[in-house]
Amino acid sequence: MIEPQTIEKLAELARIKVSREEVEGLRAEIEPILDYVNQIQDAVGAGEIEPEAGAVRNVMRADDHPHESGIHSAELLEEAPAREGEYFKVKKILGGSDVA
Amino acid sequence: MSLDITKLTIKSAAEGLRKKDFSACELAESYLERIEERNPERNAYLEIFEDVRAQAEAAQKTIDSGAAPLLAGIPLAMKDNILIKGRRASSASKILEGYTAAYDSTAAKKLKEAGAVFLGRTNMDEFAMGSSTENSAFGVVTNPHDVSRVSGGSSGGSAAVVADSMALASLGSDTGGSIRQPASFCGVVGLKPTYGRVSRYGLMAMASSLDQIGPFAKTVSDAELIFDAIKGADSMDSTTLPQGAFSARPLKEKMRIGIPEGLLDIPGLDGDVRANFEASVAKLKAQGHEIVDVPLPYLKYSLAVYYVIVPAEVSSNLARFDGVKYGLHKDGANLIEDYFLTRGEGFGPEARRRILLGTYVLSSGYYDAYYNKAVAVRRLIEKDFAQAFEAVDAIVTPTTPSPAFKIGEKANDPMAMYLADIFTVPANVGGICGISLPSGEAVRDGKNLPLGFQILAGAGREDILFALGKKFLGEE
């Protein structure tokens, strides 16, 4: 049983504003999904789970030919909802009293 | 225009272009006319690119010079979650309102190099989450065979444009069946390549350990052409693997084909689908292949594993949409309120459902019970497939448990929608390749609805899918 408070907490962690009415709807939708996926509990016993690494291979590329600094800046900044010169603009994160 | 594009394939169009039966401009013009006529009812394209004629002219020049690459002048459609530099891309989400791609996806780059003409971007479920395109912020794509039914999803637009002759072929993405299921519903060929076979650089990530790009086409030969054009290792996607990483066993003339034990016992399997599947198996047998039952004891957990792993990856991948770097921005009193408002207004119902579910299964109290367990069962499913492909060359199933369903039929029941992918999800969980082939029809309300036959093969064995598929459809 998922409590409405759990949905509210998840929405807060996920940074999504949800309305009162939506909390109830989400609770009613998520519960049967969790019921369904719970069948994986029967698939393996708790002791049988061993964390596994994937096949080992080097996927890192050498950092030898970096592109010239700044050549993509203009087109990337073009997409910014708010900018100031060569920077993305965001609101102040320090000093606000209303954010925990 | 006298050109009948409903009969064209990539192969026949390329030949027509080379023999000067028609020009790339005439071909593009025919598609634009067809789109203008059919798309208002279909809603399969979100945008038709304004430079289609210019692209066709450029392609014609390479054809005239005699040095035309393989796909020169071939009109294709692109799913709205695959980037083409300088063009809009939205994943059918409001949160990417106004976004223009700053770079080419590797798949788009390779198709450009092959000379393809991009007609437009196709409608889809928001961020590729869904099986009907009803989760698109821009409305549902109707089925070309019955306007009251869905075209499937998430790549519903890419399937419908090929089925309705609004493009010769298209690209989609498949995380749990998003190419094969709509291909089945619309009556075209849809290929999900092996994980690691096609670069996802420039594909908007949904569930990164499962996502693959693949083609829709009218024939298996055409799907193979597009696959060959886009495949290959890519330094921009570290999950891609070179050809040498896969099995290089020779292709057999007569193959051994497995049917998973207990496959047809799932509840809700449509009677016509069952009969059509049995007829398709009989056809393979008549073509000289041996049919055997194959045990895959953990296969039945695939969908449950999928709906833990997918939301988990979705919740992390979609964290990047914050209203700061690109797309929608809603202004609040402070930065954190900006996030809440932007994401609250930008994400549709299925995206928020999966983000919350993912946040839940990854939270510290539930991580072991859900995420870790799902990862462990996934390994068992992978082992199941590895063992099965020691005994058989291919595995067959229906693509979907029913023909295309009605618009609205499952829209308010997420779990019922998820079950539409029961046969397609295992290939993604196992990292193997699969193809859906049109295999017949079922009549509903006086309309002929297509059915699909799915063939699965081991990692890197697309050659088996193509060989069986061509013979199955009577190509060559």
Query: Average pLDDT across residues of chain B?
Result: 96
Oligomeric composition of the shown chains: heterodimer
What structural category arises from helix and sheet content of chain A?
A: mainly alpha
Q: Round the mean pLDDT of chain A to the nearest integer and report it.
A: 86
Which outline of chain A best applies? flat
Write up this protein.
The complex is a heterodimer of chains A (100) and B (476). Chain A is mainly alpha-helical. Chain A has helices at residues 4-13, 20-37, 40-43, 73-77, and strands at 83-84, 87-88. Chain A has a two-stranded antiparallel sheet with strand order 1-2. The mean pLDDT of chain A is 86. By secondary structure, chain B is α/β, with parallel strands linked by helices. Chain B has helices spanning 10-18, 24-42, 52-64, 106-113, 156-163, 180-186, 220-230, 271-286, 302-317, 335-346, 349-362, 368-391, 414-418, 425-430, 462-472; strands at residues 45-48, 75-79, 117-122, 142-143, 146-150, 169-174, 189-192, 212-217, 256-260, 290-294, 394-398, 433-444, 447-457. In chain B, the strands form two sheets. Chain B has an eleven-stranded mixed beta sheet with strand order 1-3-2-6-8-7-12-13-11-9-10, sandwiched between helices. Chain B has a two-stranded antiparallel ribbon with strand order 4-5. In chain B, α4 (106-113) links the parallel β2 and β3 (117-122). The longest helix of chain B is centred in the last third of the chain and has 24 residues, at 368-391. The mean pLDDT of chain B is 96. Chains A and B meet through α1, α2 and α3 of A and α9, α10, α11, α12 and α13 of B.
